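In the lab's daily routine, each protein ends up as an entry in a very long ledger. A line of letters takes care of the sequence, but it says nothing directly about the fold. The three-dimensional part falls to structure tokens, numbers that each stand for a local backbone shape. The outcome of that step, for a single protein, is printed below.
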Amino acid sequence: MSALTIENGAAPVVEEPPDTGARHKLTAVTGLAALSLDAMASVAYGPEAIVLVLAAAGGYGLGFTLPVTLAIAGLLAVLVASYRQVIAAFPDGGGSYAVAKAHLGRRTSLVAAGSLVLDYVLNVAVAVTAGVAALTSAFPELYGDRLGICLAVLVLITGINMRGIVDSARAFILPTAVFIGAILVLIVVGLFRDAPVSTAASAGHASVLADNASTVGALLLLKAFASGCSALTGVEAIANAVPSFRAPAARRAMRAEVALGALLGVMLIGLSVLISRFGLQPVEGVTVLAQLADASLGHNWGFYVVQFATMVLLALSANTSFGGLPVLLKLLARDNYLPHVFGLKADRQVHRHGVVWLAVVSAGLLVFSGGDTNTLVPLFAIGVFVGFTIAQTGMVLHWRRERGPRRVAKALLNGLGAVLTGVSAVVVTATKFHDGAWLIVIALPVLVLAFEAVHRAYGRIGERLGVGRIPEPPHRERSLVLVPVSSLTRLTSEALTAAVSLGDEVRAVTVCHPDPEDVAATEALERDWALWNPGVPLVRLPSERRSLGRPITAYVRDLEATEPGTRVTVLVPEAEPAHLWQRVLQNQRGAVVAHAVRRDTNAVVCRLRFRC
């Protein structure tokens, strides 16, 4: 509401400002660039994760790369179709959290939210380290500096996102297009090759293929499937951030979801076909994608374009978290499960507190891992599959309550998705438990308990404030204003002028310590005060300890006990230098007094800033 006017007794006329926020929201194309980089970039490590597991069964095991990938692509198709339904049913965003909150209860919704938070944070760390790993694969001399490079990339992405999700999307459209184009060209050219054009990238590197292995068990296939499912992380990001799209937001988000699924499926299957066609074997120190680029395009400029595009997109795929997590944190803050500061929005539709918090925690993970992808990957993808399962289960209940067309078919689709993702969640957790996944098993309930603690705290605060109840009408009380002083200056005069304007009675207070020097200074102040005669009494507060806050708070507590009908205000005068650097010259006594009074009494604290 920009203006409210009443003329001649007429009803209020409300003038709504034009919608100027659309330019800070996403289209289907920019949404794909801003929110799908995580899923897109997973083609760089998803097929490799499958190959590394199957390599334990030797060359015979690698023959199952394509069947495992097809199973993952089938699950991807189910997830994309299911999340289109989530977007349509919950256009306010929140994904699995919103679905669970509506149909599965509060505790389940918090499990969904916690799993998404963990996955988003881990995605940033994994994406940045994987991008830098691609860089060091092409330029091995940079390997020792990978942690510093990781932190620099994180700072860059954070800075771009502080300008808004649309600006970040525009910045990432070109790298996204280059990466997709490079991978598709690699696949198409490779399909016309009968044998690798070059093996220079893997020359001199030791193979990790097991010797004398000729059988592939169900457990190994399940483990390969679980590892390859890391390629599905990020599929839910668009459903979580529907409010970030321009109107009609749900329709644009669904288009972006379908485009993401189609591109990701084509790239995963195409790369797996080439792995089988070229008989590729994983080697130490060189990524599978680098070997495929070498085999398909040759060890030339095309190879380096693929490597550079992969590096850039892997690093920038952290942007999916910066687009989705702040929206989720806003919803949690709105429901009193996180501090309300996460719900605040700056210019350009930026949830800056969520962006900064994500960057700080991700930086801690990067330091913890030393910039090593393999340290973080075992923790990855578990949370997102928990969220997948909860979302699909909730949607089954959603269609049971809805009376729309084809609701049975929709419920069956979501039911199939719930079964598949539930099994995947169990398999991923079991196969990666000893590799570090146990940390997620511990962290998720801890995070849920933290949400509950915040909610209980807001409940207590709301009860004390009487939120939702009509309060008593305001009434006037006698007002007493205390002004701490230590000398007679213009600041003292300005403070007393403000105080007499605020209260019925004003008293100046000064703290006196037993040191002879302090006693002499206090007596001199009292003499000057009597000569000045401002019409305000000066009260001496003796203190045996070298403290300013305690004697003043003790005096305030005495006043509150002896004069219960009086509203006490402490007005703290402070000089504020014109230049920022000059503020370090201040003694900060005003801040000490204000903090002590606010902490230990019920008095109103006012801080008068005198610019000088």
Q: What stands out?
A: DSSP finds 24 helices and seven strands in the chain. The first strand starts at residue 3 and ends at 5.
